[in-house]
Amino acid sequence: MIEIRDFSFRYREGREPAVRDVSLSIPDGCFVGVTGPAGSGKSTLTYAVNGIIPHCYPGDFYGAVTVDGLDTVEASLTDVSRLVGSVCQDIDSQMVNAVVEDEILYGLENFAVPRDEIPARVDEALSSMGIADLRDRTIDSLSGGQKQKVAVASVIALKPRVLVLDEPTAELDPASSVAVFELLARYAREHGTTVIVVEQKIALLSDYADLLVIVDDGAIRYAGAPDEVLAHSEELLALGVNCPRSTTLMNALARRGLYDGPAVRNVAQAAAACKEVLA
Amino acid sequence: MAKFLEYVPGDSLLHRMSPAAKLVGAVLFAVACFVNSNLVFLLVMLVIALALAASCGLGRQTAGLCKAVLGFSVILAVVLVLTTPAGTPLVPLPWGYIGTGSLLAALTVIVRLMAAAIPLFLVFYVTRMSDITNAAVKQLHVPYKYAFTFTSTVHFIPVFMNDMAGIMEAQTARGVAFDGSLPKKIRLMVPLCVPLLVSSVRKTNSTAIAAEVRGFNLRTRESGYKDYPLAARDVAALGLCVALLGAAIALTALGA
Question: Measured between alpha carbons, how far is B168 from B166 in angstroms, rounded to an integer?
């Protein structure tokens, strides 16, 4: 679905490339989690997928990024947006209307979705995100978690093939973060949507991602299934990525020859693994 | 509590009217206030405007607006009183005098500004901003980019005010005392405009990108989903506003 080949990008005002020599192949329907230290190039990588780079932030672009065969450099930002729905990091800035229903309608109106399809699309987007009761509420009156769900709903109403979200849970408490990921994962499963999420909470990403990508200093250090990537918890810590304590503990046991199973992601898995070893 | 220019839900006649009719009606009403200087006519217009506000339960917001307009128009009134020597002299001045005509002119300015402003502000309180924008684009043929710019400006006013409050709180926590006289407060606030400007530019850029990736450039006059057909009440209201404008022009022509 998404092919990134030898991609490097240097912002016009930057001296060093923000991303260098990145190659990645993302299959259709894959849930991808991207994480890494602050300033490592995570957002730049997603900007290349949704066309914001180079259409909104000019600079030196090398390599190629294609989404469903569409070159994100050669195509206009509007054409890329027909395939890729984007949710920005700053949710307040993403909202262009004052009322939830109008915010959902905005993209549908712009992309000239047939009038008879619009009511069903709005209903589906709102119910997919579990916010049907917020339809007539003003954006200002919503909590951070509710705004996040509205932002996602306004994008999934357009039925994009790919959904790109930049730190969607940055301002949310743990329970709301899990709720947003739960809804996202369910939606992606039901609609076969490819999802790319940039997120600092690696434990959360590991629970939902099919493919976990660790970015550091503009390059991909690790990319694979969460279990494979989490097996490198020591190296990740050196990069500034903190793995869950249960993962670190079980990896330490594995290094001492006390555990030989796959990397665990949470306490429940660690407890189960310990019971198995002790049995 | 509703913020400045924020929609107040309701079911009054004004709430139910077409946004385009409300907008055009309010403009015609304001024009009528400006083409005629007859104080009695302007007082009638003010009473009509206040009755409109009362009919949709916006007395408190209108009182606040009148207070703000009064503050501004009093400055103009003082200038007029001091620079328009007319009527029977009451107070001699080195450059002329203050007369009954001066006071009448000042009073006319105050009443005119209030009467003209109330319906225009009422439009925003009884209509959702998106409906105003969509109706202006669809029915009044206003280019969408201009309508979007206006909507975004109003949308960002409270956002930037919050940002400024946050910056001031951060400075207060670091020992800056904003209490005291107005000139001192202004002097302390001026340097804070730089971080406010930086965050404003960043936010508006993010909004522009967010709008663009949701098809902003594809928007046409026909894009809007909602329709705003003119009902009999809209036609009647517009007719009334045209009649008021006609009366204002006729009174002016007759020298009244």
Answer: 5
- The whole-angstrom separation of Cα B174 and Cα A211 is 45
* Domains of chain A by residue range: 2-229, 244-279
B210 neighbourhood in chain A, CB within 8 Å: 86, 88, 93-96
Does A56 reach chain B within 8 Å, measured CB to CB?
Answer: yes
**Superfamily in which the A2-229 domain is placed by CATH:** P-loop containing nucleotide triphosphate hydrolases (3.40.50.300)
The residue extents of the domains of chain B are 13-138+228-253, 144-218
Q: Do B203 and A51 touch (CB under 8 A)?
A: no
Residue A109 and residue B207: Cβ atoms within 8 Å?
no
Q: What is the pLDDT of residue B4?
A: 64
B219 — contact with chain A (CB < 8 Å)? yes
CB of B159 less than 8 A from some CB of A: yes
ipTM: 0.81
Residue of chain B whose Cα is closest to the Cα of A112:
B223
Find the residue in A nearest to B156 (Cα).
A93
Which stretches of chain B score pLDDT less than 50? Answer: 1
* pLDDT attached to residue A229: 86
The predicted structure's pLDDT at residue B81? 82
Q: Residue B162, Cβ neighbours under 10 Å: how many?
A: 11
Q: Which of residues 260-279 of A touch B (CB under 8 A)?
A: none
How many other CB atoms are found less than 10 A from the CB of residue B52? Answer: 22
Contacts with B218 from chain A: Cβ below 8 Å:
78, 110-112
Q: Which residues of B touch A81 (CB under 8 A)?
A: 212-215
pLDDT digits 0-9 by tens, B167-221: 888 888 888 777 777 788 788 888 888 888 888 888 888 888 888 888 888 888 8
The predicted model gives A254-261 an average pLDDT of: 80
> In chain A, which residue's Cα lies nearest the Cα of B215?
A110
Query: In Å, what is the CA distance from A208 to each residue of A6, A176, A196, A250?
Result: 27, 15, 11, 20
| Neighbour tally for B9: CB within 10 Å | 10
Write out residues 116-175 of A within 8 Å (CB-CB) of B. 118, 138, 140, 154-155, 158
C-alpha closest to that of B78 among B99, B103, B97:
B103
Contacts (Cβ under 8 Å, ≥6 apart) of A276: A261
Distance from CA of B137 to the nearest CA of A (A): 13
